[in-house]
Amino acid sequence: YRNEINRLDQLHLLGETAAGIAHEIRNPMTTVRGYLQIYQRKPDSPLSSHHMDLMIKELDRANHIITEFLSIARTHPGDQQRCDLNQLLEAMEPLLVTDAVQFSHQVIFNCQPIPQLLLNQKEIRQLLLNLVHNGFEAMAPGGRLIIATSATRSHVLLQVSDYGSGISPEHLKKLGTPFFTTKDKGTGLGLAICYSIAARHQANIEVQSSSQGTTFSVRFPRIR
Ligand code: ADP
Ligand code: MG
């Protein structure tokens, strides 16, 4: 009986995912088709550069979404090397601070000594950017976002905390489902990518959220 439910859940997820992809691809197709049709009817009046820009933008977005989506489906761990997560964070600081300034936010680092980890650096940068970006977007201007690292005997923790408005229990359940978004221009792929990157690192992600804010904790296994 339980198996049946799981299978139904899986089918449901597949359906939602397919609907998400279809929506993201069909939208740009509709836009581009519309403009081409206008042009076809009036071949003498050239396509305005504004329309061309829009078409290119829409196609680029669709292409970007396909790339992101494929990265979620990947299971191969790729190139993982021993590295110092704190150093990686430090190297990203200028980028994160520049990003924060756009929102008038502040980024605070609270990094404790941690052992080296087996990481795919490119993926971990992506994971951090996605979590940080969500934190920025969740806060009113002038918010504070904290990036923290710490170690336990068995794990290394990377935590991203914001003082945003939090995530409702109903939405919490949907986190990581591809294309789940509550934002007008969101793709709903950011967290799905984080979960998939975490899985390739044998790491798990925990979320704690209240009306005071949200903390995402990524728990990496220590190298034995
Ligand atoms: P997107 O950012 O494009 O919407 P994500 O996968 O990154 O897609 O996030 C999915 C949804 O999860 C967001 O639309 C938002 O509702 C919720 N969410 C994620 N992170 C946070 C956060 N730090 N605070 C509040 N809500 C969040
Ligand atoms: Mg996001």
UniProtKB/TrEMBL annotation:
Residues annotated as domain Histidine kinase: 20-224
Protein name: histidine kinase
Species: Heliophilum fasciatum
Section of the entire sequence shown: 363 to 586 of 586
